[in-house]
Amino acid sequence: MAKTIDARGLSCPQPVLMTLDGIKEGGADEIIVTVDNDASKENVSRAAVNRGWTVAGIDEKDGLFHVTIKKGKG
Fold first, then answer.
1. What angle do CA 7, 19, 48 make, to 5 degrees?
2. What are φ and ψ of residue 34, in 5° steps?
């Protein structure tokens, strides 16, 4: 089951903390985090990988980045 996290308009570290909370909560094999700046995109991706998750994709649309992370190494 996928979980979504909307971190638009937030600057780091908030998007990273929200992502880590989503990982800790469990119950999701996939999390899609929406951010609106490059720094948050990179930091969320890095934090997920450091927790053993895989960045499955990053889609950009209308100035938003949708970072899809999946549980476990690819």
1. 125
2. -105, 125
DSSP state of 74: -
The pair of three-digit structure tokens given for residue 61, joined into one six-digit string: 């649309």
Token pair for 10: 């937030």
pTM, two decimal places: 0.94
Q: Is residue 45 scored above 80 in pLDDT? A: yes
Q: What band does 1 get if pLDDT is binned at 50, 70 and 90?
A: confident
Distance of CA 20 to the CA centre of its chain: 8
- Domains and their CATH numbers in the chain: 2-70 (3.30.110.40)
